[in-house]
Design brief:
The protein has eight helices and no strands. The protein is mostly helical.
């Protein structure tokens, strides 16, 4: 049987798998281009210089609407020049790669439309906003990565 004769239902999963792999590769590439300078290739960041460690910690933000908004206003995210869909893909890549047990069981993946709304939300000073979010998470028994900004 030639490729022309293969039913679409047989080819569709193969095409979708290729598409998913391409999206993951693009997200990883965008992470390298836009995020690795601060958060390093292993996600550990530079805590001594104010760049939090992702590993086993970043997921707590994804379970809280305010936390999701915070992630979109991190200077390297909001100023990245990525499209909303690309930003969503990078955030999902970060969650998949480094959130570990900090990711809520009911985690909802970021989407381009959500990113657009959250980026347009005025959160004020991002450092102060992070403190508010961290306090709210702490009251729920969740901890966030150290953040030494005054």
């Amino acid at each position: 049987m030639t490729m022309r004769r293969l039913p679409l239902l047989v080819l569709l999963p193969v095409l979708l798998m290729g598409s998913a792999q391409a999206a993951e590769r693009q997200a990883k590439t965008n992470f390298v281009l836009k995020c690795i300078g601060c958060h390093l290739a292993d996600g550990t960041g530079l805590p001594g210089q104010g760049i939090p460690d992702f590993v086993g910690k970043v997921g707590v933000f994804a379970g809280l609407p305010e936390g999701r908004a915070y992630l979109l206003h991190v200077p390297g995210v909001i100023g990245s020049s990525l499209t909303d869909n690309e930003t969503a893909e990078v955030l999902n890549y970060i969650m998949d790669k480094w959130a570990g047990d900090s990711l809520p069981k009911d985690f909802v993946r970021f989407t381009g439309p959500e990113v657009a709304v959250l980026k347009a939300t005025n959160i004020g000073n991002v450092v102060n906003y992070r403190r508010v979010v961290a306090d709210k998470l702490a009251k729920s028994g969740l901890t966030v990565a150290d953040y030494p900004w005054p």
